[in-house]
Predict the structure of Spore photoproduct lyase.
Amino acid sequence: MRPTQIYYEPNIEQYTLGKELKEKFSDIPWIPIENHNNIEELRSKENSEFRNLKQLLIIGTRKTHKYVENHKVSDYLVPYTSSGCTAMCLYCYLVCNYNKCSYLRLFVNREQMMDRLIRYSTRSDRELTFEIGSNSDLILENEVTGNLPWTIDNFTKCKKGSITFPSKFSMVDPLLPLNHQGRVIFRMSVNPEEVIRNIELGTSSLDKRIEAINKMAEAGYKVGILVAPVIMVDNWKAIYSQLFDRLEAELSEKMKKQMFIEVIFMTYSFVHRKINAEAFPESIELFDQEKMTGRGMGKYCYRNTLRSEGEIFIHDELERRFGPGRILYIC
Ligand code: SF4
């Protein structure tokens, strides 16, 4: 990824990663800012400039480090080395938090975040799992920072706990030779190819994602599949069945033996509609009043009857191919 411009907090140069990034992108314009959370000139841009905003890189330090309890694959959601992303999934959950400023932000004080993570993990009286990728896509971020090998090497020096992160990207090769000790849980998000092409703009293809899953399983990582988000477009049953056929045919035996599955249905919002209409006027309209509840300025989700039908369908289709007990949750 080559950003068009970099906005940065000047103190990043006190950090090793900050210095490295300054060097790596020395040919790109750098614009100093006071605080990565509030860049007025970017906040005031039109929604139609969303694509251009996504080509920026923002670099600063993370100031808030509050862990939030979680009860799915992990015990805690951990704010880590980035937020936002360069891709443009039309439903991206980060748009709810950051609006059109959901561009990639990097936080260079990774040593501080890692120290805290290790302290949390070692002082617990049980093995904890930490979700470190809930605010961004760490496989994508790794292309810019190289943070994932650094993270895995450092986290596994403490002998307790696990880390996990999801991705829609396939660039896993730098992770394959690492000594992860079986304490890293990788979760690949999948969707039918036409959903990826038309809705998950700028992410890896299904072919590449399947290849990456098999590589990670082969390298001994714990690997899960995230069917997320399920999007109930007109032919949803047919395309999700085809997706599961492909997974059944193309995932390696090693992967299929150990895999777990999470299923998440899409939620959407007024903010998404507004940005998408102005930034991607040609794109598919994901809001469907017949199918969704919620109106006005709020969030939208699938109506209960449709949603129940979807849950049963996805559950049965997955169980038929991959056996019982694989699905951790459907939400
Ligand atoms: Fe958002 Fe993830 Fe898509 Fe990036 S890859 S735009 S973080 S949903």
Q: What stands out?
A: The pocket of iron/sulfur cluster is lined by residues 85, 87-89, 92, 94, 136-137, 168, 200, 203 (CB under 6 Å).
